[in-house]
Amino acid sequence: MSGSGGRIFLIATEESGDRLGAALMARLKSRIGDNVELIGVGGRAMAGEGLNSLFDVKELAIVGLSGVLRQLPKILRLIRFAADSVIAAGPDVLVIIDSPDFTHRVARRVRALNPGIPIVNYAPPSVWAWRRHRASAMRAYIDEVMALLPFEPEHYRALHGPPCAYVGHPLLEQLSSMRPGEGDEARAAAQAPVLVVMPGSRSGEIAQHLELFGAAIGGLRAAGHDFTLILPTMPHLEARLREGVASWPVAPGIVVDEVEKRAWFRIAHAALVKSGTGTLELALAGIPMVTAYRLGAVEAFFLRPFLRHFLATASVILPNLVLGETAIPQFIQEQCTAQNLTQGLIGIWGDSPARQSQMAALARLDGLMATDGKAPSEKAAGIVVASMRKRLQLPAG
Fold first, then answer.
1. What is the structure's pLDDT at 68?
2. The model's pTM
3. Which residues pair with 8 in a beta bridge?
4. Residue 34 and residue 70 share a domain
């Protein structure tokens, strides 16, 4: 297809989706050629691959249900603007990435206005977790789903959703930077065991977890355990976190550089982390952990059925879902107390059966998440190109 061009419209409105979009753009340019036109909505990572975003995605950085309600007119305006821009561009394929509350509304409007534009959903909604009816509803406006987790295609099939293929999680392309290498053993031996703490990446999550995590860490120290405390975060959150941890009984080293964060991961002894993608990152690095999640009062009220379902039937932790077992302890909502988190950390601190069992489970992730030797972004690009070829009526290859 090199030299034949084409136009691909991508939409990603959150940082995780932006990173996915950037890696996909790089693969598409490599596969199709520099004359492919990549347009749409994205953040800094996609801008680095040459995307001129239609609007600043920071406009959608809205915290909590109350924030959404206050900003609803602006959100609806941006949904209409994005969809109308897709129609005006007439792309050969539309790729929506994550952020289903925004991207799926755009996709539905695009499908209604121009049914001929193929629509691919990269990092689809978690229909396996809640609002399972979304899977079958997606058939009306999504042509292909590209899943990050290996169990997702089966759920989409069972729920009568669109065709879904497992392409792999982007973290699989970064394993060498997350696991011990030359010199790391000496670095680990030169200091107290490293405890990584990750209280969240959104303002609401930080508000719910920061004080709680500080108390749990204080409990671990009070139990007689010495450790080097590391808190990875993003640059725009650094000031907020420095202020928030000032009252912690143990001062963490705050890390904003990604390379430095991975260097700490390679020698980490254990972690305390908010439920989310961070749990999978730590799990693939082979770091035993304790996980937590606590919602604010308003969100907890509206999500109570979801919480009740999962606390009764399954885990909400991504590595546990991939493993098919509750290998990693989780403390959600009422169970999420400083005492429980401290006891969880003590349970995996020494060379205990609980620690050994968790590490053995984490070692199984590579096999469960394998992508047949192809990088996830490469597999995703292949599906996008296939949709594009079909639209342009070009031969496969």
1. 58
2. 0.87
3. 38, 93
4. yes
